[in-house]
Design brief:
By secondary structure, the protein is mainly β. Helix content is 7%, strand content 52%.
Length: 122
């Protein structure tokens, strides 16, 4: 296994953006905070009490900034996703990585500088 080599096919951008997820289309939804996003996947932080398990398929709803032909716009996603990994974070939060069942229609863009992102996660 090579360390430090990016194996993902899509470029990820760091975001601090809300995500809502639930186990049924008309059921209860929980709020998390997106950490990074690509056209094919999303990771977010969530309190341990509301954390889904690996292998679970969830209904995910979120909006995201997109950069189309040098113009800012907002995209949205409201579809199913599969939980691939759950990592413990300091304190009472966990980080959830999901694969989107339908890819985003456009590439997301980041709206925050690197330094601000690192500070916000601590």
């Amino acid at each position: 296994m090579s360390l430090g080599i990016e194996r993902r096919r899509d470029r990820r951008v760091q975001l601090l953006w809300p995500i809502w997820f639930g186990y049924a289309e008309d059921g209860e939804f929980f709020r998390g905070q997106i950490v990074d996003l690509s056209q094919g996947g999303v990771s977010f932080s969530i309190e341990r009490d509301n954390c889904p398990e690996v292998g679970t398929h969830l209904r995910a709803n979120f909006s995201f900034p997109q950069d189309i032909e040098e113009e800012f716009d907002m995209g949205s996603y409201s579809h199913w996703a599969e939980v691939l990994r759950v990592d413990k974070l300091p304190g009472t939060k966990q980080r959830v990585a999901m694969r989107l069942h339908e890819r985003l229609s456009s590439e997301p863009c980041s709206m925050i500088p690197e330094a601000a992102f690192a500070t916000a996660l601590n």
